[in-house]
Amino acid sequence: MNIRLGAREASVGMLSKQRVWLVYAVVLVITGESLFDIVTDTEHWPFSQYAMYSWVNRDYSLTLTRLFGVTESDPPREIPLTTFPYLQPFNSYRLRRALNWMLQSANREQLLGDALRDVLRRYEERRLAGQHDGPALQGVKLYRLYWKLDPWARNIDRPDGKNLIFAVTPPVEEKR
Amino acid sequence: MSRLRERWEIFWFEPASPVNLGFCRILFFGALFALYLPQDFVAWAEVSPVFWKPIGLFRCLHLPVLSAPLLAVIQALWKVTLGLSCIGLFTRLGTVTSFILGAYLLGLPYNFGLLSHSNAILVFVLGIMALSRCGDSWSVDQLLRTARRRGEPSVSHPLMSGEYTWPVRAVWLIMALIFFGAGFSKLRRSGLEWIVSDNMAILLIQSNYSISGIEPLTAWGLHVAQYGWLCQLLAAATVVFEIGYPLALVSRRARWLIVPAMASIQIGIRVLMGPSFEQFLICNLFWVRWDRVFVRVFADARRMRSVAASTFTQDS
Fold first, then answer.
1. Is B63 on the interface with A (CB under 8 A)?
2. Sign of the C-alpha dihedral, residues B24, B26, B27, B30?
3. Which candidate, B114, B97, B163, B108, places its Cα nearest to that of B135?
4. In chain B, what are the domain boundaries?
5. Which residues 134-153 of chain B have a CB within 8 Å of chain A?
6. ipTM of the predicted structure?
7. A174 pLDDT band (50/70/90 cuts)?
């Protein structure tokens, strides 16, 4: 084998000097930025420190926020909005994370109101377009749910705590 | 020092046949085409701006959410270029375009409140393939070149070159950095408590409470969670293989252990906890020496044919 960094490319398939340095530049950028994010515990997409699941859970409990839709039936029911067809293009995890950062914002009331109305709007548009078979909704509520974990998850539908954080209903004009 | 330099250059530029990289191209772009063909990015254009929280690349370049019609065009074009790159037609144009459009489309959802970690590796690999000469073999482009320039052996049979080594090694490096980062993050944030506590058992149970947006394929995680020692063993294995993944770059024996182990862990996560890592599993194809697989398969086929022929001759 004969790699000559200073040689011009020849018919035997050696890389040119420029080509080699291009490869090294790419390697340097990828390695350097990746290590920077790992060392500083930050993310600069597409680079990341890949910190998913890195925190320790010490308590057999679970607290999370979840959206519920309020049906137009009489009496109205609250149905969990967790399935992808209801929330598309979000999934429940991505939407929950998005709402959580709004909860921590100074103008959370404004942000949550706009966000939940948008979820409701898209839900209804997709329902009317026949893209899911969910019931018609008159509102959306954001709850914080708490469970003491059951070893076999038998209480998944019966959280031990349920606190309303925010709720929206569409204006009367939109309902018509 | 000169020995170290030589090993470094061998790692990146050891002359290799273009067959391996060509087949990696087919499988990689073929898998992406199959994975993303049904996916619709247009719906992101209809999401309220209240959710818009631009991430790194989008913030730096001030990239907006494009309109729905434009997104529809871009996603169609991207899927076409994935297909073209797979078959190796207009390979350079296809791979470069699929990288540029892919970086936008794959990154777009992450501007809406959640930095996820599954698609980023694809952006890197698309970029590497765009810079590489992955269309030199097993491609329609090569067939056309051969037809146009008959009698030139270097066209019909490209010469061995380091050009067909470095892209594969670059993908290896990316995977090593990703998994090392994941393991390092666990130890930095939580220390050994991540392994020796009830953490894994709690995670397995929580996963069955619809937390990740993707349900686990089975409820086996609840059974595993009943055995503390098993959960700690799984946690230890996860961290060991993540932290140790860079060894696969330099040791063939480590490669045979670490790469399949990490792939198994990711499959296990899908089965027990929910989150899927198809993108990472696809990139594992770069660890396979497809040229050696072919040699082995064809050699076996030739051997079987000669055995069958000699058996037939004896019978007659």
1. no
2. positive
3. B163
4. 15-143, 177-295
5. none
6. 0.88
7. very low
How many angstroms separate the CA atoms of B303 and B316, rounded?
Answer: 20
- pTM of this structure: 0.90
Contact between B90 and A73 (Cβ < 8 Å): no
* Closest by Cα among B35, B75, B47 to A91: B47
Find where tokens 């609250």 sit.
A78
Q: Is A48 on the interface with B (CB under 8 A)?
A: yes
Peptide bond just before A76 cis, omega within 30 deg: no
Q: Which residues contact B210 (CB under 8 A, 6 or more apart)?
A: A82, A92, A156
* CA–CA distances in Å: residue B162 to residues A18, A28, B124, B168: 14, 18, 20, 10
User: Which segments in chain B show pLDDT lower than 70?
Assistant: 114-116, 151-158, 311-316
Sign (positive/negative) of CA torsion B77, B78, B79, B80?
A: positive
Identity of the residue in A52, A58, A93 whose CB atom sits nearest the CB atom of B213: A93
Picking from B41, B209, B220 by the largest number of A CB atoms within 10 A of its own CB, the best residue to mutate is: B209
